[in-house]
Predict the structure.
Amino acid sequence: MKLSILIPSLEKGGIERSISRISRGLLDKGWDIELLVEKFSNEGTAFFDERIYIKKFNAGSFNQNSNIFFSIFKNMILFFSVLKYLNKSNTDIVLVAKNAPLGVLIKKFSSNTFKLVIREPVNPSSASKIQRSFLSRKILNSIKRVSYPYADKVIAISYGVKNSLISLLDLSPDSIEVIYNPAADSRIKELANSEVPPEYRKERHPTVISIGRLAPQKDHMTLIKAFERVLESVDARLLIIGEGQERNKLEKYIQQNKLSDNIKLLGYMSNPWKFLINSDLFVLSSLWEGFGNVIVEAMYLGIPVVSSDCESGPSEILNGGELGHLFKVGDDVQLSEIITSSLSEKERYLDIVNSAKRKSEEYSIETITEQYEAVFRGIIL
């Protein structure tokens, strides 16, 4: 069977990494897979198997900061290009990984009889927080509310996302299937064995690590302020891997408070797992998530986890706090106390780490791929 994955923006993020793993699992099961992309980077395409055909479209040069009307115009250009292509295609299923309304519009006007599956990677109620204006939020939510029911199936990456889709977009629970991300990838164990510079080995200092874009959503400032408190009693080090718009703000705070010796912003790393496995504790401080891939990756590598109890994903993965610590979103005092106790009493958490490692196997590529294939075959047959 043939699967076309519509992912207009192919960047170096968690969505791309998850889609690449799902694609690899389906390829190994004999599926024919192609990516339909408009904007892409070398880092984004590097995630994907060489067996996948990448069809590139050109929809103009409007950037992500263009207002909503320019975005709509760009999407219309992309709509006609992809529609023309799919009308001549023999694809069985189109999986929309980004920009679901565009996928629905293409299906409604296509002469092809493919099935449409929407994969919702973010919590709609949280995603509305990043829209630039009230008008943008109203328009986009209205478009989603009208378009999503036309999909043959909607896949939510957590139950938190599913519940939000039901409440915010009035979708039927039966139309939504929850399939978690395949974050337990055996390849990251191989990559984790790579050498790190000697100065970043955890034997030198107790090491806390955080991995994620330097974006407001990730709330690294709460983590940095919490770690500043930790340093009052523990000579530890915080490594933050990721790049983004918040770098200058975070660097300024670190420098002004004389934290540069203990807190390092390492930037984007193609292999963050070699640093992750050389740490004593992983912390996710996000304001919201759709799932939380890196939590599972840390569990898979046997690294203790601390996460904000944000919507949605972390609490589901950590069984409500049984498999790792949860702290109140934005509470740097509570976070500092958890980090301090975690670094000081490592032996106490060994059973939790081992249980978390076993739990992470549920997110293997093989397991998740089977769930996707079951959904696909269920709507075709």
